[in-house]
Amino acid sequence: MTDPQAQTPPAPTLRERFLQAAQEILREPDTPLDLRKVAERAGKSRTAPYLVFGKESEGGGLLALKIAVAAEGAREMADRMEEARDESSEDSLEAFEAVAHAFLTFVEENRRLFRLMYGPEINAVSRLGKEGFREHPEFSRLLAERDRAGLLVGSLIWEAQRRHVLQPDPLSPDQVAHPDGEAPSQRYLQVAWAAMIGVAHLRDDELLQAIGWDITRDNGSRLITEAVFGLDPKRAEEAANKFLRSRGVL
Fold first, then answer.
1. CA-CA distances (angstroms) from residue 236 to 79, 133, 166?
2. What is the Cα–Cα distance from 190 to 186, expressed in whole angstroms?
3. Which of 24, 30, 237, 248 is the most buried (most CB within 10 A)?
4. Is the full-model pTM beyond 0.90?
């Protein structure tokens, strides 16, 4: 007998189907992301995406789709980082490292999507004037989700400062505003995101493989944490010895 309380999940909207199709394409290494392929994957006509994302001449089309997909990726990234924070201990370093690990895991599983989220194409859009995509609802959503991830990292830095794990930064008077009044150091926040995005690209492009440095998610998240909180002497010695062994010195 059918449970009267059970409800059938609602069918995906046309927008959701297009975004799912675009995400599927971005998980494939070589398939170009264009409106025709997205429409085909979603089982719709070639012109159907324009019904959702608008016409190219009106600030829609493929670029609007890409921004919407980037926003969806930023939402998932922020969700994963929040979940890692919630499941971690109260130790500031452990919580920060768990969030960095979740970030690197997301990047590893969504390489093309990550490059879209933080790549030159989206960055160019952000520089358009008032009549451009800056006022577009898709772009506003992307900014909101990226800000959510930024506020999460900022809250961890502020908590570490509050507990004196990180010292206040007298050289950085500009603070990042938080809804509850918390204000982490701007420089610590900049270092954190520079390290996160930098390590993500180093891993993705395998730029240090030639010298025998394989940056895993575990040691990558430690590198990010140490960039903000300072080097652990034992880990610094371990890294130095590994490098010397790779050069045949030890």
1. 32, 45, 19
2. 6
3. 24
4. no
